[in-house]
């Protein structure tokens, strides 16, 4: 389990090492390295998702490791409270950014091994603090530095605490 402490409160996530091992290990490594501390939730869309993990409060993108293989074809679904990897239009382009689903977003699920069908890899779920995520979802947003849906007041990841660290093979 991993506790994310933000300026709006804490939430806890549990990785799914069994169904999304590559993605879970990637996310855990970013957590271990302190990568997420000081990043913001930079994209918030009510009724859809909250996205973070890659930009500072000054909207500067942090350098990441190489992209990982998309595990959206492992059967996990983009339902309320799940975490998925953000990516570009290229299916296997996820690095450090992630999003938390605040609705059941089945249109993000894997349907085919084509560019348009790959979907977004679910790798974890919120196990506590969903009220904090719902609070994030309700903030007022604006456009900043070419980014839409940016919270007017930054939602900052202040600290990441790993509890019961999973074994990485």
Topology:
Blueprint lengths: L1 E5 L2 E7 L5 H12 L6 E7 L3 E8 L25 E4 L12 E4 L20 E7 L1 H8 L3 E4 L2 E5 L5 E6 L7
Antiparallel strand pairs: 1-2, 1-10, 2-7, 3-4, 4-6, 5-6, 5-7, 8-9
InterPro entries: Cyclophilin-like_dom_sf, Cyclophilin-type_PPIase, Cyclophilin-type_PPIase_CS, Cyclophilin-type_PPIase_dom, E_coli_cyclophilin_A-like
GO biological process, one term: protein folding
Pfam families: Pro_isomerase (PF00160)
What would a concise description of this structure say?
With 169 residues, this protein is mostly beta strands. It has a single domain (2-162), classed as Cyclophilin-like (Cyclophilin). It is built from 2 helices and 10 strands; from the N terminus they run ββαβββββαβββ.
What does this structure look like?
With 169 residues, the protein is mainly β. It has a single domain (2-162), classed as Cyclophilin, CATH 2.40.100.10. It has helices at residues 21-32, 130-137, and strands at 2-6, 9-15, 39-45, 49-56, 82-85, 98-101, 122-128, 141-144, 147-151, 157-162. The relative contact order is 0.29. The mean pLDDT is 95. InterPro entries: Cyclophilin-like_dom_sf, Cyclophilin-type_PPIase, Cyclophilin-type_PPIase_CS, Cyclophilin-type_PPIase_dom, E_coli_cyclophilin_A-like. Pfam families: Pro_isomerase. Its EC number is 5.2.1.8.
Question: What descriptive keywords fit this protein?
Answer:
169 residues, mainly beta, Cyclophilin, 8-stranded antiparallel β-sheet, two-stranded antiparallel sheet, 2 helices, 10 strands
